[in-house]
Amino acid sequence: MAENLWALREKKKLSVAALANRSGLPIGLIMEYESGLRSIDPRHLGRLARALYVEETDITLQSDPRPGSGPLERQPRREAPGRVPAEGSAAGRPPSADPRPRARPPRPRAEPKPPGPARPSQIVHLENMLKRLGRSKEDLEAELGRPIAELDRVAMSELLKTVQPQIGQSDSATRRRAHLPESVDEHEARYLTAAQEGGDRLHFTLFDGSYLNGQVIGFGPFNITVRQADGTEISVNKLAVVHYRRDPAAGAPKEPSA
Hints:
The chain has 258 residues and is an alpha+beta fold. It is built from eight helices and five strands. The protein has helices spanning 5-11, 16-23, 27-35, 42-52, 120-133, 137-144, 153-174, 186-198; strands at 201-206, 211-219, 223-227, 233-237, 241-246. Strands 4-3-2-1-5 form a five-stranded antiparallel β-sheet. The longest helix is centred in the middle third of the chain and has 22 residues, at 153-174.
């Protein structure tokens, strides 16, 4: 025979809190079930029966109030501010959290920093290019309409991009050098052959800062052999040579111009 929920709980010597803990239902909801203020939700019946170790048919869906107990008033559930309870949710189940993340307010954009002054390496590079072009710093400043020292890093970079192509045009106008895949460059081979047959003395500038004068007596893909004024012969590795040219003076070595 079905019995009231409160009677079965007392038979099992369980408190309302213990029954709520076992069944996973809110204490207030169980108190409403026991007072008869609310009929037991069929979805909760199985959980209550398992918690009490009885059959579902042993529990009365609508309990009679316990004798001598005062009437229990239903307490309205408080909803979280800004929350809308989901429709069709089970009695006593807290409203589900909104899965949608809240949009973050847009961050204020930081103002772009002004470019810094030109780097020393940029200024040195510009000066070297002007030397190769045979131009002065003052002429360039007159074209720009302001001193080079006032240029920032971005403006200097744009200026270098403008001056750089002029060097290539200047070099192509003053010399024509063939770039061939042969072991000895054809242009270099003709130049050295003419110097060897003509008995010309060449002036070599090496990467270690030293100079060498001598007559070409032979050459290959990697070396050039010269005879110096005292008759000694020496082979120079091409990788150690900055550049070489015909000696403008037959006497002491003269440092070639840049």
